[in-house]
Amino acid sequence: MSKIIIADSFRMFEDKINDDFEYVFVSPDTVINVLENDCYKALILTSDFSEIFHKIRQIKGHENSYIITFSNDEFSFICSDITYDGNITLENFLDALTKIRILLSPLHHASIFNFLKRLLVAKDSDMLSQLYRVPDLVNFIIRKLIEEKVYIELLTKQLIKDTVFFSTFHDIGKLTIVNENLHFTGEFDEHQRKTMKLHTTLGYEFFTAVTSIFPELKSQTAENIIYYHHEWYNGNGYPKGLSYDEIPLEARIVAIADVYDALRSKRKYKDSFTHEESFNILLKEKGSHFDPKIIEVLEKHQDELNKEYQKFL
Protein backbone atom coordinates (compact mmCIF):
# COMPACT_ATOMS: atom_id res chain seq x y z
CA MET A 1 0.00 0.00 0.00
CA SER A 2 1.38 3.44 -0.95
CA LYS A 3 2.24 5.77 1.91
CA ILE A 4 1.67 9.52 1.99
CA ILE A 5 3.05 11.87 4.65
CA ILE A 6 0.80 14.71 5.82
CA ALA A 7 1.38 17.64 8.19
CA ASP A 8 -0.07 17.25 11.69
CA SER A 9 -2.16 20.38 11.26
CA PHE A 10 -4.23 18.62 8.60
CA ARG A 11 -5.54 15.96 11.04
CA MET A 12 -8.90 17.71 10.94
CA PHE A 13 -9.28 16.48 7.36
CA GLU A 14 -8.51 12.84 8.15
CA ASP A 15 -12.05 11.71 7.40
CA LYS A 16 -11.68 13.00 3.84
CA ILE A 17 -8.63 10.87 3.04
CA ASN A 18 -9.18 7.80 0.91
CA ASP A 19 -8.55 4.42 2.57
CA ASP A 20 -6.79 3.11 -0.53
CA PHE A 21 -3.42 4.16 0.87
CA GLU A 22 -1.59 4.47 4.16
CA TYR A 23 -0.87 7.89 5.60
CA VAL A 24 1.24 9.25 8.44
CA PHE A 25 0.83 12.60 10.17
CA VAL A 26 4.10 14.35 11.04
CA SER A 27 5.35 17.48 12.77
CA PRO A 28 8.45 19.47 11.77
CA ASP A 29 10.28 17.70 14.63
CA THR A 30 9.47 14.19 13.42
CA VAL A 31 9.37 14.46 9.63
CA ILE A 32 13.09 13.78 9.03
CA ASN A 33 13.03 10.59 11.07
CA VAL A 34 9.96 9.37 9.18
CA LEU A 35 11.51 10.17 5.80
CA GLU A 36 14.74 8.37 6.64
CA ASN A 37 13.04 5.22 7.88
CA ASP A 38 9.90 4.83 5.79
CA CYS A 39 9.16 4.45 2.11
CA TYR A 40 6.67 7.04 0.90
CA LYS A 41 5.32 8.45 -2.33
CA ALA A 42 4.48 12.07 -1.60
CA LEU A 43 4.22 14.81 1.01
CA ILE A 44 1.56 17.36 1.85
CA LEU A 45 3.12 19.88 4.22
CA THR A 46 2.60 23.40 5.52
CA SER A 47 5.02 26.30 5.47
CA ASP A 48 5.91 25.43 9.09
CA PHE A 49 8.31 22.91 7.56
CA SER A 50 10.22 25.56 5.61
CA GLU A 51 13.26 25.60 7.91
CA ILE A 52 13.97 21.93 7.22
CA PHE A 53 12.74 21.96 3.64
CA HIS A 54 16.26 21.75 2.19
CA LYS A 55 16.90 18.62 4.29
CA ILE A 56 13.69 17.09 2.96
CA ARG A 57 14.85 17.71 -0.59
CA GLN A 58 18.30 16.26 0.15
CA ILE A 59 16.71 13.06 1.41
CA LYS A 60 14.19 12.68 -1.40
CA GLY A 61 16.06 14.49 -4.17
CA HIS A 62 14.52 16.72 -6.80
CA GLU A 63 13.77 14.33 -9.63
CA ASN A 64 10.20 13.06 -9.58
CA SER A 65 9.67 14.60 -6.15
CA TYR A 66 6.71 16.94 -5.85
CA ILE A 67 6.50 18.27 -2.32
CA ILE A 68 3.47 20.55 -2.41
CA THR A 69 2.75 22.78 0.57
CA PHE A 70 -0.48 24.46 1.62
CA SER A 71 -1.61 26.51 4.57
CA ASN A 72 -4.61 25.21 6.54
CA ASP A 73 -6.92 27.66 4.79
CA GLU A 74 -5.60 26.65 1.37
CA PHE A 75 -5.88 22.97 2.17
CA SER A 76 -9.42 23.49 3.43
CA PHE A 77 -10.18 25.22 0.14
CA ILE A 78 -8.83 22.23 -1.78
CA CYS A 79 -10.84 19.83 0.38
CA SER A 80 -14.15 21.62 0.15
CA ASP A 81 -14.21 23.35 -3.18
CA ILE A 82 -12.22 21.54 -5.88
CA THR A 83 -14.60 19.48 -7.95
CA TYR A 84 -15.12 19.50 -11.70
CA ASP A 85 -17.88 17.52 -13.36
CA GLY A 86 -18.06 15.42 -10.21
CA ASN A 87 -14.71 13.83 -11.07
CA ILE A 88 -11.95 15.74 -9.29
CA THR A 89 -12.19 15.41 -5.52
CA LEU A 90 -9.74 15.47 -2.66
CA GLU A 91 -9.44 11.69 -3.04
CA ASN A 92 -8.36 12.11 -6.67
CA PHE A 93 -5.89 14.77 -5.62
CA LEU A 94 -4.28 12.76 -2.81
CA ASP A 95 -4.24 9.55 -4.80
CA ALA A 96 -2.52 11.38 -7.61
CA LEU A 97 0.13 12.79 -5.29
CA THR A 98 0.94 9.35 -3.90
CA LYS A 99 1.88 8.26 -7.39
CA ILE A 100 3.86 11.44 -8.03
CA ARG A 101 1.27 12.26 -10.63
CA ILE A 102 -1.86 14.35 -10.84
CA LEU A 103 -5.28 13.76 -12.31
CA LEU A 104 -5.55 10.01 -12.77
CA SER A 105 -9.25 10.19 -13.60
CA PRO A 106 -10.16 10.13 -17.30
CA LEU A 107 -11.20 13.75 -17.63
CA HIS A 108 -11.81 16.15 -20.43
CA HIS A 109 -8.63 18.12 -21.19
CA ALA A 110 -10.26 21.40 -20.20
CA SER A 111 -10.99 19.98 -16.76
CA ILE A 112 -7.36 19.01 -16.30
CA PHE A 113 -6.13 22.50 -17.10
CA ASN A 114 -8.88 24.12 -15.03
CA PHE A 115 -7.76 21.98 -12.11
CA LEU A 116 -4.17 23.17 -12.52
CA LYS A 117 -5.36 26.79 -12.62
CA ARG A 118 -7.36 26.23 -9.45
CA LEU A 119 -4.31 24.79 -7.69
CA LEU A 120 -2.23 27.81 -8.70
CA VAL A 121 -4.80 30.26 -7.35
CA ALA A 122 -5.17 28.26 -4.12
CA LYS A 123 -1.41 28.41 -3.73
CA ASP A 124 -1.04 32.13 -4.44
CA SER A 125 -3.96 34.54 -4.81
CA ASP A 126 -1.77 36.86 -6.91
CA MET A 127 -2.01 34.22 -9.64
CA LEU A 128 -5.74 34.79 -10.20
CA SER A 129 -5.51 37.83 -12.46
CA GLN A 130 -2.09 36.82 -13.80
CA LEU A 131 -3.68 33.72 -15.33
CA TYR A 132 -5.61 36.02 -17.66
CA ARG A 133 -3.26 38.96 -18.11
CA VAL A 134 -0.14 37.09 -19.22
CA PRO A 135 -1.83 35.11 -22.04
CA ASP A 136 -3.52 38.32 -23.20
CA LEU A 137 -0.18 40.15 -23.28
CA VAL A 138 1.44 37.21 -25.08
CA ASN A 139 -1.31 37.32 -27.69
CA PHE A 140 -0.79 41.07 -28.09
CA ILE A 141 2.97 40.68 -28.57
CA ILE A 142 2.51 37.96 -31.17
CA ARG A 143 -0.02 40.04 -33.11
CA LYS A 144 2.42 42.94 -33.24
CA LEU A 145 5.30 40.69 -34.33
CA ILE A 146 3.16 39.44 -37.21
CA GLU A 147 2.07 42.97 -38.06
CA GLU A 148 5.71 44.09 -38.22
CA LYS A 149 6.78 40.86 -39.99
CA VAL A 150 9.26 39.94 -37.26
CA TYR A 151 9.90 36.22 -36.67
CA ILE A 152 6.97 35.59 -38.98
CA GLU A 153 8.64 32.47 -40.39
CA LEU A 154 8.68 30.92 -36.90
CA LEU A 155 5.19 31.92 -35.84
CA THR A 156 3.15 29.02 -37.17
CA LYS A 157 -0.53 28.75 -36.30
CA GLN A 158 0.20 25.90 -33.91
CA LEU A 159 3.02 27.75 -32.15
CA ILE A 160 0.83 30.83 -31.73
CA LYS A 161 -2.05 28.81 -30.32
CA ASP A 162 0.15 26.83 -27.92
CA THR A 163 2.19 29.83 -26.78
CA VAL A 164 -0.89 31.83 -25.83
CA PHE A 165 -2.56 28.88 -24.12
CA PHE A 166 0.41 27.48 -22.19
CA SER A 167 1.72 30.87 -21.08
CA THR A 168 -0.99 30.54 -18.42
CA PHE A 169 1.09 27.80 -16.80
CA HIS A 170 4.55 29.33 -17.06
CA ASP A 171 4.83 29.49 -13.24
CA ILE A 172 3.32 26.09 -12.48
CA GLY A 173 6.53 25.19 -10.67
CA LYS A 174 5.56 27.60 -7.88
CA LEU A 175 3.22 24.88 -6.63
CA THR A 176 6.35 23.27 -5.22
CA ILE A 177 7.67 26.39 -3.46
CA VAL A 178 7.00 26.69 0.28
CA ASN A 179 4.57 29.44 1.26
CA GLU A 180 7.14 31.21 3.41
CA ASN A 181 9.25 31.87 0.33
CA LEU A 182 6.40 32.41 -2.11
CA HIS A 183 4.68 35.00 0.10
CA PHE A 184 7.86 36.58 1.49
CA THR A 185 7.78 40.38 1.24
CA GLY A 186 11.36 41.24 2.18
CA GLU A 187 14.68 40.80 0.40
CA PHE A 188 15.56 37.17 -0.31
CA ASP A 189 18.68 35.65 1.18
CA GLU A 190 20.82 33.40 -1.01
CA HIS A 191 19.03 30.20 0.04
CA GLN A 192 15.58 31.68 -0.66
CA ARG A 193 16.77 32.97 -4.02
CA LYS A 194 18.06 29.54 -5.04
CA THR A 195 14.83 27.91 -3.88
CA MET A 196 12.70 30.28 -5.96
CA LYS A 197 14.84 29.63 -9.02
CA LEU A 198 13.99 25.94 -8.77
CA HIS A 199 10.43 26.65 -9.91
CA THR A 200 11.43 26.43 -13.58
CA THR A 201 13.03 23.00 -13.24
CA LEU A 202 10.37 21.66 -10.90
CA GLY A 203 7.62 23.12 -13.07
CA TYR A 204 9.06 21.30 -16.08
CA GLU A 205 9.16 18.03 -14.12
CA PHE A 206 5.63 18.60 -12.84
CA PHE A 207 4.25 19.20 -16.34
CA THR A 208 6.04 16.20 -17.83
CA ALA A 209 4.51 14.08 -15.05
CA VAL A 210 1.07 15.21 -16.21
CA THR A 211 1.85 14.36 -19.82
CA SER A 212 3.23 10.96 -18.85
CA ILE A 213 -0.34 10.12 -17.83
CA PHE A 214 -1.96 11.99 -20.70
CA PRO A 215 0.53 11.72 -23.60
CA GLU A 216 -1.88 13.53 -25.90
CA LEU A 217 -1.34 16.68 -23.81
CA LYS A 218 2.41 16.68 -24.38
CA SER A 219 3.59 19.98 -25.83
CA GLN A 220 7.15 21.01 -26.57
CA THR A 221 5.96 24.62 -26.54
CA ALA A 222 4.59 24.24 -23.01
CA GLU A 223 7.80 22.61 -21.79
CA ASN A 224 9.89 25.37 -23.38
CA ILE A 225 7.82 28.11 -21.76
CA ILE A 226 7.85 26.55 -18.30
CA TYR A 227 11.54 25.66 -18.36
CA TYR A 228 13.09 28.63 -20.19
CA HIS A 229 11.01 31.74 -19.40
CA HIS A 230 13.71 33.00 -17.00
CA GLU A 231 16.56 32.70 -19.49
CA TRP A 232 18.19 36.00 -20.45
CA TYR A 233 19.00 36.98 -24.01
CA ASN A 234 22.66 37.54 -23.05
CA GLY A 235 22.98 34.15 -21.33
CA ASN A 236 22.80 35.36 -17.73
CA GLY A 237 19.47 33.71 -16.92
CA TYR A 238 18.49 30.30 -15.58
CA PRO A 239 18.17 27.32 -15.47
CA LYS A 240 20.51 26.59 -18.41
CA GLY A 241 22.14 29.92 -19.20
CA LEU A 242 20.96 29.83 -22.82
CA SER A 243 21.43 32.90 -25.02
CA TYR A 244 20.12 34.48 -28.22
CA ASP A 245 18.33 32.03 -30.52
CA GLU A 246 19.15 29.11 -28.21
CA ILE A 247 16.19 30.33 -26.15
CA PRO A 248 12.95 29.19 -27.83
CA LEU A 249 10.98 32.10 -29.27
CA GLU A 250 7.92 31.25 -27.17
CA ALA A 251 9.99 31.55 -23.98
CA ARG A 252 11.42 34.91 -25.10
CA ILE A 253 7.90 36.21 -25.72
CA VAL A 254 6.52 34.97 -22.40
CA ALA A 255 9.52 36.41 -20.53
CA ILE A 256 8.62 39.91 -21.71
CA ALA A 257 4.90 39.51 -21.00
CA ASP A 258 5.63 38.10 -17.55
CA VAL A 259 8.00 40.89 -16.51
CA TYR A 260 5.79 43.66 -17.89
CA ASP A 261 2.81 42.21 -16.02
CA ALA A 262 4.82 41.85 -12.81
CA LEU A 263 5.94 45.47 -13.02
CA ARG A 264 2.43 46.81 -13.69
CA SER A 265 0.85 44.70 -10.93
CA LYS A 266 0.46 45.57 -7.29
CA ARG A 267 1.94 42.78 -5.22
CA LYS A 268 2.25 42.05 -1.51
CA TYR A 269 5.79 43.41 -1.57
CA LYS A 270 5.45 46.38 -3.98
CA ASP A 271 3.14 48.96 -5.52
CA SER A 272 2.28 48.87 -9.20
CA PHE A 273 4.45 50.72 -11.73
CA THR A 274 3.08 52.96 -14.45
CA HIS A 275 3.35 51.94 -18.09
CA GLU A 276 6.13 54.49 -18.60
CA GLU A 277 8.14 53.18 -15.65
CA SER A 278 7.60 49.57 -16.69
CA PHE A 279 8.48 50.06 -20.34
CA ASN A 280 11.60 52.05 -19.49
CA ILE A 281 12.81 48.99 -17.58
CA LEU A 282 12.14 46.80 -20.63
CA LEU A 283 14.07 49.26 -22.80
CA LYS A 284 16.95 49.36 -20.33
CA GLU A 285 17.21 45.56 -20.48
CA LYS A 286 16.82 45.28 -24.25
CA GLY A 287 19.56 42.99 -25.55
CA SER A 288 20.56 41.86 -22.07
CA HIS A 289 17.44 40.34 -20.50
CA PHE A 290 15.10 40.64 -23.48
CA ASP A 291 15.17 39.90 -27.19
CA PRO A 292 15.89 43.31 -28.78
CA LYS A 293 13.79 42.63 -31.89
CA ILE A 294 10.67 42.03 -29.80
CA ILE A 295 11.28 45.10 -27.63
CA GLU A 296 11.77 47.25 -30.74
CA VAL A 297 8.40 46.09 -32.07
CA LEU A 298 6.70 46.89 -28.77
CA GLU A 299 8.38 50.28 -28.68
CA LYS A 300 6.47 51.16 -31.85
CA HIS A 301 3.20 50.10 -30.21
CA GLN A 302 3.64 51.40 -26.67
CA ASP A 303 0.32 53.22 -26.53
CA GLU A 304 -1.54 50.12 -27.69
CA LEU A 305 0.30 47.99 -25.13
CA ASN A 306 -0.75 50.36 -22.37
CA LYS A 307 -4.37 50.30 -23.56
CA GLU A 308 -4.28 46.51 -23.70
CA TYR A 309 -3.18 46.35 -20.08
CA GLN A 310 -5.70 48.98 -18.99
CA LYS A 311 -8.46 46.44 -19.69
CA PHE A 312 -7.45 44.64 -16.49
CA LEU A 313 -7.33 47.69 -14.21
From TrEMBL:
GO molecular function, one term: cyclic-guanylate-specific phosphodiesterase activity
Keyword Glycosyltransferase: no
Ranges for domain HD-GYP: 105-313
Enzymatic class: hydrolase
Pfam families membership: HD_5 (PF13487)
Enzyme Commission number(s) of this protein: 3.1.4.52
Keywords per UniProt: Hydrolase
UniProt-listed PANTHER family: CYCLIC DI-GMP PHOSPHODIESTERASE TM_0186-RELATED, TWO-COMPONENT RESPONSE REGULATOR-RELATED
Protein name: Cyclic di-GMP phosphodiesterase response regulator RpfG
Organism: Haploplasma axanthum
